[in-house]
Amino acid sequence: MFLTAQLTSEWHAWHDARVADLATRFGALSITAIQWVQPGQSGRWFDLPGEFTFDGTWMHFKVDPGHTVGPTAASLEVTDAPDSSLVSATHTKDDTFSARVSLNTGFNWLLCGDVVVELLNREGYVALRKRDSKAPLLSRFIDVPTFPLDKSWTVQGKFEAFDQPQAHRIGTATPGLDRTETFPGTVTFELGGHTHTLLASGSVSNGLYINFYDYTNGVTTPEWRRLNLGVPDQSGGVIMDFNRTIVWPMAFTPYVACPAPVAQNMLPLRVEAGERKPAQTLSESGVNTPVLLVRTGGDIFYEKSLEHLRNLGVDVTIADSTTGELLPPLTGYAGLVVVGYDTPEVTEVNEQVLELLSDATGASVPVVAIGNVATLLSSQEKAEEHPWQASLESTDFSVASLDSEQQVSAGPVYDVTVNDVVARDRLFSRVVRYDEGGTSYIPVREIEPVLRKQQTRKKAEAEGTELTEPSTSATLESQAPGGQDAESGTPELQWSTLATWQDLIERFARLVHSQI
């Protein structure tokens, strides 16, 4: 694939503008809550100093004495245009604000400190939505992950208008809330060796877009995505650059009602272009702590550890580098775990794994490598400018070129190897060791008795009993991956006591939570 400088530059300019739009003060990433309100209902919501009341047409907000709440710029605009058929707002001398919205409209209504209250109507249901300029998701947002730029995903489309726009009932990202959408016509194009015709949304005068499903949904992308097409030319021609496919706000927050595609807008292929599923998202329990776990081969037992990590509130995404599929970029992840077991003589190197390790080093993301894949991490930490073209005697790591078949001769194999971010953290500094080559690793078997004694002491102190050492037979759980054992002559990755691994997992969970 050959990318011209112009194509690359234009895409990056588009992507930068998209990121800037997402990062706006009261944009989609600032949405933190929604309150659906029934006629006659009153309540105090979003910690605002006052009470809301909905009379079935107008929403009123009475400000508590001694507090300040004001209208937004949008609210002032509709206050100055009281004859508007879409939205209206008023403000009385007794500090009562009132507003109304017509079907499927809304606007940012009230401003209180860092918070804006939006009033909206969706299919006759009225809601208040909180937008917080200091929202954690917005404050931590850096970028939205994308697939690699590929010009083969840019095709020519042809728009054909209906004699009369067609109305279809569609679903939304809010369960149980359907809506009616009007489609002005269809767009026909060639992609993946087949001809596709999808219903187009929007308008010819202001710009068209398509809402579509594809086989990546729910895996590497959200349930559906959107591609803006712009205004068609005189013959109905449109440029369809799937590299500019975007995710809806529902990919970040649950408090939105993004429209779903009609059933026929299904592309029966994997559209690995444009924006991917973001790693960091908001749910009713708060902002997640995402960690990427990459399998590089072998049969390592880690299900118990994975379950424990998730129980500690870590949102784990699993990717397998052996399938040939694109690994997700590190954007938004608070930690990286690489797990791999193979024969000690030769280990195949996946370019994507090396890229992830390089990105993690540059972004100071905590990394843990388990199994003899740890060789890659220890080598990566030492290679400063060209990590995948290094020859490092300390671990016998050698990779000739990205363009040739890549192999690694295995050197020292540790149960757990960590990068400097982990090694220097106060949670790990006392359990990390360094070999002669400077590799930072955790000697699980060596620290097991120490950790077990610490755990026993804590338990005894909590129960007010005397300190007693647990028997090794009662606590030792040794499992070799793939059912291999030492007698077979194949090096094995022995798992130490369950308690020891749980302790290390808890430390890692605390570390990545602190990154958010």
From TrEMBL:
What segments bear the compositional bias annotation Polar residues? 468-478
Q: List the CDD domains.
A: GAT_1
Region described as Disordered: spans on this chain: 453-491
Question: Which residues constitute the signal peptide according to the record?
Answer: none
- Read off the InterPro entries from this record: DUF1684 (IPR012467)
Q: Which Pfam families match?
A: DUF1684
Would you tell me the protein name for this molecule?
DUF1684 domain-containing protein
